[in-house]
What does this fold into?
Amino acid sequence: MLKYIKHHVDTISGVEIYPIISLLLFFLVFTSMLIIVLKMPKKNIEELSNLPLDNDIKNNDHE
It folds into this structure.
């Protein structure tokens, strides 16, 4: 099965650019998310980290 797929992929012209594009997209998304998280204020990080705990408390109060 792999030989079948590899044979058809090899016949496509310009297919070698797709791994490069996917690597660049991954790197771009990863670095942009890292920059966003590093620039986020500490107050927002604390609120987000407490969300699962706050949700459990709110659910128990309604029951």
